[in-house]
Structures are given as structure tokens and as C-alpha cells.
Design a protein that fits this description.
It is built from 10 helices and 7 strands. A 3-stranded antiparallel beta sheet has the order 1-2-3, with no helix packed on it. A two-stranded antiparallel ribbon has the order 4-5. Helix 5 crosses helix 9 (about 220-235). It is mainly alpha-helical. The protein is elongated and about 60 Å long. The chain has 3 domains: about 10-85; about 110-295, Intergrase catalytic core (hpI Integrase, Chain A); about 300-330, no CATH class. The chain has helices at about 10-20, 25-45, 50-60, 65-85, 110-125, 135-150, 150-155, 185-200, 220-235, 325-330, and strands at about 165, 170, 180-185, 270-275, 290-295, 310, 320-325.
């Protein structure tokens, strides 16, 4: 990794060390700060303080840059200015109103027919002419993402040692909030993982990633996004219409309605159901294993006092009163 070269190298390095010391990976933030350091070294080589000119030169929107990306790029520099101020160094803090409000999207809720079409399209993926076994990786990666409620990055970064095929568990490292968790494989997904591991192991016997690319390394997030778009097109699925609608993509966490975070801590996991005839492997023509959420319902947890307090107005115009015994809020 190249050394910092601008007059702000000391504060930038200090901020990165501080973030790592409190347990944050801070990889994306470090990448933005290093790019900011390169800009300062080139355009402001004699500046040792963070001035308004330097900060606003960095905050200026780039061609075709989305406001959310611009915000992610500005945030580490704003953190740097505040860090420098705490150290007693003069620094200009980019105002909170720049670059504007973050654009938020509505999630797309897949129907069961869309899910069947999506996984069937994944099973029809052909091997890449450039090497690699994406025909094996894509069906397994998206099934695991959906059935376990993983974030796309969590599935992509799974190491082979994180998937315990003997015990049927998957260990997720540095998830949201930089915390680890363990999730459980259902019986059919467990068998699917065993089939995949044996098939991919013939091509990459000493692999470190659970989902290796043609070089035996981890896939990039760009590959996952491209695959998902390819599957959506093949399945004939379009994003929800209307302003603010999210493009249907793995940018949002794939979940089904029965999945709850607490399910990862249950002794018996919530299984996924195979709605079509199970096949020994994804490559058998004409027979596709489509994993969908189980219809099994678990009893609701008992309601606790002072939680999920909703108000209801009974017929007759009686006064409002708190309601905590509803079976809808009790299951929350």
C-alpha cells in the first residue's frame, strides 16, 4: 500500500489508526481518504491544514455521480476535519447539508412465482468461456443468500472454513455493526451445499473462498450485481414502477417473510421448503431445485410489558387505551 503524500498525511493516518483501534475495518473510508490525499498532494502540495477550498474541491459532484455515492465519498473527509479539530489543528468541516438528502429506495417484494423463475434461470446458467465455474457458483450463491437472509457481501466473502458442512452451520464474519453471527442450514440447503462443495472442489481443491472465481479468489461485488441483473432479465422480472422505487438488485438484503434475525440463534433452524421435485444437483437438465420459505409457523413469543404499545379505539367511542396483548404485536 502506497504511503500518504500530502501535507495532511499525519492526521489522515491518525484517523485511520483510531478507527482500527476501536474495532472498525474502515476499508472504504480509508480508500476515500487515500484518494483525497492524492488530490491534496497534486492540487494543494503546500497545504498542511484542511481549508474550505480543499474540502469543497473534494465535495464537488463528479460527472454522472449519484448523490448517495457523493455522500459516501464526503463523509470520511468530514470525519477527518472533526478529528483534526479534536487534535487542535485548524480544519474546515463540510456543512451537513452537502451534498443534499440521501435517496432512499423502496424494496421490491418478490412473489413466489418470481422466485421460482429466478432460481430456474440460475440453474440454466452456462459455464463461462473465460474459465471459472459460474454455472456452479451462481445457483448456490443466490440460494444461500435468499434462504439464510444474507447480505450480498456476506455471501460473497464466505470462506470455505466458515461453512461447516458437518454441523450444518454458516459463520458470518463482520456483519452489520461489525459483529459476527452464526446461521443454520436447513436439511435440503445443507445437502445442496454438500453437492456444490464436492463439485467445485474438483476444480479448486485448495480454495480459500467458498465461492471461488476462476483464479480461486473471492468474487468482486461487480460480478454479483452483473449476475443478478442477468438473472432478472432471464426471469422476466422488472423493478417496481414509480418514483423512488428501488432497482431490483442485491443492493438490498434478500429476505423472505419468515426469516428473523433471532432464527440464527435457535437450536432448530427455520427450514426452507423445496417446492419442486428436488434434484441431486443443479446441473441435471429439466429438474430444478427451487428453495422457498417454509410454510411452517412458529408460535408467537409472549408479549412483554411496555413493548409494542399500540392504541386502538373500540366501537362506541370509548376512550383510547394502550393495547399490548394483540397477537400481531406479540409476535414482533
Amino acid at each position: 500500500m502506497t504511503a500518504l503524500a500530502s501535507g495532511l498525511a499525519g492526521p489522515i493516518g491518525s484517523l485511520i489508526e483510531f478507527k482500527r483501534a476501536i474495532g472498525l475495518p474502515y476499508k472504504t473510508g480509508e480508500a476515500h481518504l487515500r484518494a483525497f490525499d492524492d488530490m491534496c498532494a497534486q492540487d494543494f502540495p503546500d497545504r498542511c491544514v484542511l481549508t474550505r477550498e480543499m474540502a469543497m474541491a473534494w465535495a464537488t459532484a463528479r460527472p454522472s455521480e449519484h448523490v448517495n455515492g457523493q455522500m459516501r465519498r464526503i463523509t470520511p473527509v468530514r470525519q477527518l476535519a472533526r478529528h483534526m479539530a479534536r487534535l487542535g489543528v485548524e480544519a474546515y468541516v463540510i456543512p451537513a447539508g452537502i451534498p443534499g438528502r440521501q435517496v432512499r429506495y423502496r424494496p421490491h417484494i418478490f412473489t413466489r412465482d418470481q422466485l421460482r423463475a429466478l432460481f430456474a434461470a440460475a440453474d440454466r446458467i452456462q459455464p463461462s468461456p473465460y474459465g471459472g465455474r459460474r454455472d456452479l457458483v451462481i445457483p448456490m450463491l443466490f440460494r444461500m443468500t435468499y434462504c439464510l437472509g444474507l447480505r450480498p457481501g456476506e455471501a460473497r466473502r464466505l470462506a470455505r472454513n466458515d461453512v461447516d458442512l458437518s454441523g450444518g452451520t454458516v459463520y458470518i464474519r463482520e456483519s452489520k455493526g461489525h459483529k459476527d453471527r452464526r446461521v443454520y442450514l436447513s436439511a435440503d440447503l445443507h445437502g445442496y451445499c454438500r453437492t456444490f462443495d464436492a463439485a467445485i472442489g474438483a476444480h479448486h481443491p485448495d480454495r480459500a473462498p467458498f465461492f471461488p472465481n476462476r483464479k480461486g479468489q473471492f468474487y468482486s461485488h461487480c460480478s454479483i450485481n452483473a449476475w443478478f441483473g442477468e438473472l432478472l432479465q432471464a426471469a422476466g422480472i422488472r423493478s417496481a414502477a414509480g418514483a423512488g422505487a428501488a432497482p431490483v438488485g442485491p443492493a438490498s438484503r434478500a429476505r423472505h417473510r419468515n426469516h428473523q434475525p433471532a432464527g440464527a440463534r435457535r437450536a432448530e433452524p427455520r427450514g426452507a421448503a423445496a417446492v419442486s421435485e428436488p434434484a441431486p444437483g443443479p446441473q441435471q437438465p429439466g429438474r430444478h431445485l427451487v428453495l422457498l420459505p417454509s410454510r411452517r409457523r412458529f408460535p408467537p413469543r409472549p408479549a412483554q410489558a411496555r413493548q409494542h404499545r399500540h392504541r386502538t379505539c373500540p366501537s362506541g367511542g370509548a376512550r383510547w387505551r394502550p393495547m399490548i396483548s394483540s397477537r400481531w404485536c406479540a409476535a414482533g
